[in-house]
Design goal:
The complex is a heterodimer of chains A (about 550) and B (about 190).
Chain A: E1 3-5, E2 12-14, H1 54-63, H2 65-81, H3 97-114, H4 124-153, H5 161-165, E3 169-173, H6 178-190, E4 194-198, E5 201-206, H7 213-229, E6 237-245, E7 249-251, E8 259-270, H8 281-287, E9 292-304, E10 316-325, E11 330-332, E12 335-356, E13 366-371, E14 378-380, E15 386-393, E16 396-399, E17 402-405, E18 414-420, E19 428-433, E20 436-439, E21 445-465, H9 468-487, E22 491-497, E23 502-508, H10 512-522, E24 532-533, H11 534-538
Chain B: H1 2-43, E1 59-63, E2 71-73, E3 81-87, H2 92-110, E4 113-119, H3 124-134, E5 140-142, H4 147-152, E6 159-163, E7 169-174, H5 179-188
Parallel strand pairs in B: 3-4, 4-5
Antiparallel strand pairs in B: 1-2, 1-5, 3-6, 6-7
Classes of the chains: A alpha+beta (about 550), B alpha/beta (about 190).
């Protein structure tokens, strides 16, 4: 390994060092005329020194600030592009994305879709990009933080005159007394500088911890990024949605079939229902549609206490009961269930009556009700009539001339009834649906819809997020690092006596204005008040 | 001389430690990256129960039968290959593959493979009509409360599991099956020695 030997004190410095670790003499000849580069206190950034094995090469790649900034810039640009058109989750679910983007946004939309920007934030490359930023932050922090820490911990008190001359704030004084020097040191102490001495040389230093700010900040950021990864662990994070019909009990998704929810009642209120709503009358008329004021689900939560080895009929035990209102979820065992949406007036049951086809008054021979979720096959009556529900379509539709159901739910029920009268041998076939009442042939009897019951369906969101405390911790540490680095400055004053004069140099990692005004206060009443800002002089 | 050697040894030591340190950190960081990527890829491809997993045991009511047969339990078929089909009457692709299943059922039943079809329909009457219409002879179960659907994490219909004689998922198919593919998958779960 190459070392740089300091020609003044003979100390072996690591390759890449710009200021001698021991005496502080500038090692780089180019810096003679200009100011010293005090970044990382002149230590060798470790990655800049060796580049041999693959491990080192990978390490060095990620420790480069240029690489880090490039990665961040790429992520920023990509994130911005991702907001130009809606993401796939926000387009209607019924449309094909490959057509939707082209139809809606033309050629740019097509390109957007084909480059995968329609699903950007969950895409593989975007995730890898974010993860690479995390890796870069981590390695950069270690690579710069550790040498800086060591350099400041072991920093020399006695520095080479060239080191002092290379500082931005520098002064030389010949006309002073020992008393003046003591007063200066006293003032430094009063301003909470820590003073160390060696052979009459002094180093006054304060707020060194401010230098760790960026590293604390990065630590917080890394914890934050790691916490987002915890979302992939199923026991840490659940985000599901579900529908529950009034009166039904459903398994809550994401709970491993442990919890069930019963929708006891769905309450839906609109503006215009109450007397005090009169003031809204005009606004409501203009709007045309109803405006919901409030909706809530009265729910009960059950826990399945049965043996989970075999998934079978649950044995439910009520653990909680309450309301779910939009921003007031029901909570149990880290789960929060939120009111999300609703479907009003889904059919629950339908009632029919049978009468003679020829009867103009349609006097009922019999009446019966069909439960639309669990209908019975046969309805028998004492007066000898029998009605068979031969076929049932919960969500009826004609497809290629044949009736079929398109969903599970009784939104548009269709029925095929076989009617057997006491005096008829053959069954009479009727088909009924909303707005349809067809008879197969000349029927003696006719069925008519008399009544129906509806119920509401509550749309709920199931959430569980155990990653929040970790995200919070990361954000908290991030803020501490930010405050630590922003509101304090690491300031140092070197006092270097020679035979006939004294050199004083100051350094601060930021806020030179503050350093200067503090120097004025420190040197008040001493002959050291004049100090030169060498940066201005060079210009 | 010995001092120089010591310094050299020291340096070598340092270098080795550095390599170990850097390798360890890189392994941890890239491990986290791989975990994130892997989780993301497997997160939303359809179902929770995957190839290689043990198929969760369940007991469901057998429907569309002449007499009441009670519950049918998956573990009763241990020692046999099981094709587990999740379907619904309103799902057209499910309806298209049903005749293939019916056609191959007697052939593979002799070889020790059972076909079980779990309907996620809400209404039993609708299932009965469907089974009669297609004259299906294999057992039809009714997952009325969607517990099994939830446990298997089924998203698209149909989803079909091919489970070997030890209860391990050999293959999982999201979507419709053709006769040839169905035959191929059924061959995979014929128990050994039969």
């Amino acid at each position: 390994m190459n070392t740089i030997i300091c020609d003044t004190c003979g100390h072996h410095n690591k390759e890449g060092t710009t200021i001698c670790e021991k005496c502080g003499k500038p090692l780089n000849q180019d810096t003679q005329k200009t100011l010293l580069n005090m970044r990382y206190d002149g230590t060798a950034i470790r990655s800049k020194t060796r580049n041999r094995s693959i491990i080192d090469k990978t390490w060095n790649f990620f420790s480069s600030i240029k690489v880090g900034v490039t990665l961040i810039a790429l992520a920023l640009i990509a994130s911005a592009i991702g907001t130009i058109y809606p993401q796939e989750t926000y387009i209607p679910q019924t449309v094909d994305p490959s057509e939707h983007y082209r139809d809606q946004y033309g050629i740019p939309g097509q390109i957007y879709y084909q480059l995968g920007f329609h699903n950007l934030y969950g895409s593989l490359w975007y995730m890898i990009l974010i993860a690479l930023i995390g890796i870069s932050i981590f390695i950069v922090s270690i690579d710069r933080g550790v040498p800086l820490y060591r350099a400041l911990k072991h920093q020399a008190i006695k520095r080479h005159p060239k080191f002092l001359k290379g500082q931005k704030l520098y002064g030389e004084y010949s006309d002073y007394t020992e008393e003046d020097k003591q007063q200066l040191l006293q003032h430094l102490k009063q301003r909470r500088y820590k003073i160390t001495e060696k052979d009459g040389h002094y180093l006054a230093e304060k707020n060194r911890f401010s230098r760790w700010g960026p590293y604390v900040n990065h630590l917080g950021l890394i914890i934050f990024l790691a916490a987002t990864l915890l979302r992939f662990i199923p026991s840490m994070y659940v985000d599901e949605s579900m529908w529950v019909r009034e009166g039904e009990t459903e398994v809550i998704p994401g709970t491993n079939q442990e919890y069930y929810i019963e929708n006891q009642q769905f309450i839906f209120e609109v503006y215009g229902d109450r007397e005090e709503d009169e003031i809204f009358e005009t606004a409501l008329e203009n709007n045309g549609a109803i405006v919901p004021r409030h909706y809530e689900t009265k729910a009960a939560i059950y826990q399945d206490t049965s043996d989970k080895e075999v998934i079978s009929e649950p044995e439910l035990e009520e653990i909680k009961r309450g309301e779910i209102i939009v921003n007031q979820p029901i909570k149990f065992d880290h789960f929060h269930i939120y009111q999300d949406s609703y479907q009003l007036n889904e059919f629950q049951s339908m009632s029919f009556k049978l009468h003679e086809t020829e009867d103009a008054d349609e006097e009922a021979i019999l009446e019966f009700t069909v439960d639309l979720v669990d209908p019975e096959r046969v309805y028998e009556f004492d007066n000898g009539y029998r009605i068979e529900l031969n076929d049932y379509f919960p969500d009826y539709e004609l497809s290629d001339g044949r009736p079929r159901t398109t969903t599970n739910y009784p939104r548009n029920p269709g029925f095929v009834f076989f009617v057997y009268g006491p005096d008829t041998e053959e069954a009479e076939v009727s088909f009924l649906a909303i707005g349809q009442n067809l008879a197969a042939g000349e029927n003696q009897y006719k069925l008519s819809l008399t009544d129906f019951d509806v119920r509401n369906v509550s749309g709920l969101t199931v959430r569980k997020d155990l990653t929040l405390p970790f995200l919070g911790l990361g954000a908290f540490i991030f803020m501490i690092g930010l405050i630590q680095g922003m509101y304090w400055q690491h300031r140092r004053v070197w006092i270097h006596p020679t035979a006939d004069r004294i050199y004083i140099a100051c350094h601060t990692n930021k806020n030179w204005f503050g350093m200067k005004s503090e120097y004025e206060k420190i040197t008040e009443g001493t002959p050291f008040t004049e100090i030169v800002d060498q940066e201005n002089k060079n210009e | 001389m010995s001092k120089l050697e010591q310094a050299k040894a020291n340096k070598k030591n340092k270098k080795r430690n550095r390599i170990i340190f850097r390798s360890a950190i890189l392994v941890v960081l890239f491990g986290a990256l791989a975990f994130a990527v892997f989780s993301n890829l497997t997160a939303d491809d359809g179902a929770t129960v995957d190839v290689g997993d043990k198929a969760p045991d369940f007991a469901l009511k057998q429907v569309a039968t002449v007499e009441d047969l009670g519950d049918l339990q998956l573990s009763d078929y241990e020692g046999k290959g099981v094709m587990l089909n999740f379907w619904a009457t309103y799902c057209e692709p499910c309806e298209r593959e049903m005749p293939y299943m019916e056609q191959l059922y007697p052939v593979y039943q002799e070889k020790g493979v059972e076909i079980i079809a779990v309907s996620v329909d809400a209404t039993e009457l609708v299932i009965n009509n469907f089974v009669n219409k297609h004259a299906l002879t294999f057992p039809i179960l009714h997952d009325k409360n969607s517990q099994v659907l939830d446990a298997y994490g089924i998203r698209p219909l149909p989803t079909t599991y091919f489970i070997d004689e030890h209860g391990k998922v050999e293959e999982r198919v999201l979507g419709e099956l053709s006769l040839e593919r169905l035959e191929g998958y059924l061959d995979q779960i014929v128990p050994e020695g039969s």
